[in-house]
Amino acid sequence: MENRGLVIVHTGDGKGKTTAALGMAIRAWGNHLRVLILQFIKGSWKYGELESIKALASINDQIEIRQGGLGFSQRGSGAEEEHRCAAAELLQTAMDELRSDAWDMIILDEFNYAYSFGFISLDELEQLLSVRPEKTHLIFTGRNAAQELIDRADLVTEMRLIKHPFQQGIKAQKGIEF
Ligand code: ATP
Ligand code: MG
Fold first, then answer.
1. Contact 149, 112 (CB under 8 A)
2. Is the pLDDT of residue 75 over 70?
3. Which among 15, 16, 37 has a CA at the least distance from the CA of 26?
4. What residue's CA is closest to ligand 1, atom 2?
5. In the prediction, which pLDDT does 123 show?
6. 118: closest CA among 79, 80, 69?
7. Among 65, 102, 134, 146, which is most exposed with the fewest C-beta within 10 angstroms?
8. How far is the CA of 53 from the centre of ligand 1 (A)?
9. Burial level of 80, CB count in 10 A (0-12/13-18/19+)?
10. How far apart are CA 105 and CA 5, in angstroms?
11. Is the CB–ligand 1 distance for residue 161 below 6 Å?
12. 78: pLDDT strictly greater than 80
């Protein structure tokens, strides 16, 4: 069987982009692939899955999660420069880790958010894709995936909002939202 790394995108306005990436991480880890998760937005991975990853990581060191980004913010707010720096730092981490070839799957969670805010350029995206080892899967999540990313991807899924409990005023549920 040919092992070929895929460029994967989870986008759209419906729920499930990050959790689908987690599903892939679990599937990959179970296949003895080494999985690195980089969070472009702090808090995008919730307590529940952090505990699960911690449990997997205690079994072996083939899964790791690193927070690099900042919390949500509005463009133009005073914190913009900080967000830009946090995104640049995490991007550098992603490049270094890809170059080191230490992972079979790297998840760039909420990358699309950082990209759509202009914190990451097309040049940087291209560099990221070009340093990717042939067998490494790279997963990008977040709403509003850029067309240039979609064009370069092998697998793109759009989660489309049909209904969300928040619309009925139902609060976040344990195991579903956190
Ligand atoms: P999840 O982490 O549950 O897979 P996601 O990655 O698809 O969600 P994000 O865009 O990262 O969604 O948004 C994160 C949070 O916003 C989640 O808690 C999610 O439930 C909530 N959310 C996602 N889509 C919607 C929506 N259409 N309406 C309201 N809240 C939403
Ligand atoms: Mg998400």
1. yes
2. no
3. 37
4. 18
5. 98
6. 80
7. 134
8. 20
9. middle
10. 8
11. yes
12. no
- Token pair belonging to 125: 């995206």
Q: Average pLDDT for residues 162-172, to the nearest whole number?
A: 96
How far CA 119 is from CA of 94, 108, 123, 162, in Å, comes to 15, 14, 12, 30
Residues 122-156: b if buried by 16+ CB within 10 A, e if exposed: eebbeebeeebeeebbbbbbbbebbeebeeebeeb
Domain boundaries 7-168, corresponding CATH code: 3.40.50.300
Q: What percent of the chain has pLDDT over 70?
A: 96
C-alpha 38 to ligand 1 mean position (Å): 18
Q: List phi, psi (to 5°) of 6.
A: -110, 150
Task: Outline where 60-136 has alpha helix (H).
Answer: 80-100, 111-116, 122-131
d(CA 4, CA 40): 25
Nearest to 141 by CA among 63, 37, 32, 68: 37
Q: Look at the pTM and tell me if it is higher than 0.85.
A: yes
Given a contact cutoff of 8 angstroms between Cβ atoms, the answer to whether 107 and 141 are in contact is yes
Confirm or reject: Cβ of 39 under 6 Å from ligand 1: no
Biggest distance spanned by C-alpha atoms of the chain: 51
pLDDT of residue 84 exceeding 60: yes
